[in-house]
Design goal:
Strand content: under 5%
Number of strands: 0
Largest sheet: none
Helix content: over 70%
Shape: globular
Distance between the termini: 6 Å
Structural class: mainly alpha
Radius of gyration: 19 Å
Number of helices: 14
């Protein structure tokens, strides 16, 4: 059954990563493949050949779902996000609220005698708000010209990519939001379009960004895996705070669209969509439970 569920996991994570304000790591955590994904990415740089071979096999199956999911989002769902962003944002709010309860319930045995660490919920929540508020200082910045990057700009793009990939796998805030905060998102999108059109003048900047994302992914995966192993209770509370306050990032998701829209408000909030988000999470939990029984 893992052969079937792993591509499905990749597909769901790709769809989540394409939504303004929500992290694919949130979906990974909710669907129960978060630690397996982290462990596989971390094993790529390990010395154990058997584990590395297993990791490559797992990640190939994962990408078999992730790549079509991302392609679908680029070709089809991007239009839906532009026209129905408030409905989708309301739905993801419902998913995020329900996810907090699911995460805490899933880890209740670990958290039972660790309430003293609940302060990490506030730390996680504050982190998301702080990062999201920084977006106001970089409203669609296009300062980085990928066709003519200087050495210091290459380093900046590299580290921006590393931070974005770390955010992508950390529940709470999306990698695209981090790129937007750093003022790299719009230049990167434009550069990718130019490279796809055959203009290789932008290829150097894209390589810098990709290298940063690869390095950040490897470093973050191993680091987060280690923290979950040694400080699990603190990390679970931190993740709960990140997911809970991703509501703030989701509400401001419309601002990050190609044509910015006003943030989600009481007037644009959709109650039916909110409860449909909760229903989606319930369905994901059911899929996860059945996968465990058959596995």
């Amino acid at each position: 059954m893992k052969t079937f569920f792993t591509p499905l996991h990749g597909f769901c994570m790709a769809v989540a990563d394409s939504v303004p304000g929500i992290s694919g790591g949130t979906v990974a955590f909710v669907m129960g493949f978060y630690e397996e994904l982290l462990g596989s990415v971390g094993s790529l740089a390990g010395k154990n050949r058997a584990r590395r071979a297993e990791a490559v096999s797992y990640l190939c199956r994962f990408c078999a779902g992730w790549l079509p999911g991302m392609a679908l989002c680029i070709l089809v769902l991007s239009r839906i996000f532009s026209t129905h962003i408030y409905v989708l944002s309301s739905a993801f709010m419902g998913l995020s609220v329900a996810a907090v309860f699911c995460i805490l319930n899933e880890e209740k045995s670990v958290l039972k005698n660790s309430l003293r660490y609940s302060v990490f919920i506030a730390i996680g929540a504050f982190s998301v708000v702080a990062l999201s508020m920084l977006r106001n200082f970089f409203p669609g910045s296009s300062a980085a010209d990928f066709s003519a990057l200087r050495m210091w700009q290459c380093l900046y793009v590299f580290f921006a990519g590393a931070a974005a990939s770390a955010a992508m796998i950390l529940p709470g805030i999306s990698g695209s939001t981090v790129l937007l905060i750093c003022g790299v998102y719009v230049p990167a999108v434009n550069a990718l379009k130019e490279v796809m059109a055959g203009n290789l003048a932008f290829a150097g900047g894209c390589v810098c960004l990709a290298a940063g994302m690869a390095a950040g992914l490897l470093f973050a995966a191993r680091g987060i895996s280690l923290l979950l192993e040694k400080f699990r209770a603190q990390m679970i509370f931190l993740v709960a705070g990140l997911v809970l306050d991703s509501l703030y990032a989701i509400a401001f998701g419309p601002v990050s669209l190609k044509i910015p829209r006003v943030p989600l408000s009481a007037a644009t909030f959709s109650v039916p969509a909110f409860f449909s988000g909760i229903a989606i999470l319930a369905a994901l939990e059911l899929v996860k439970a059945r996968g465990r029984k058959r596995g």
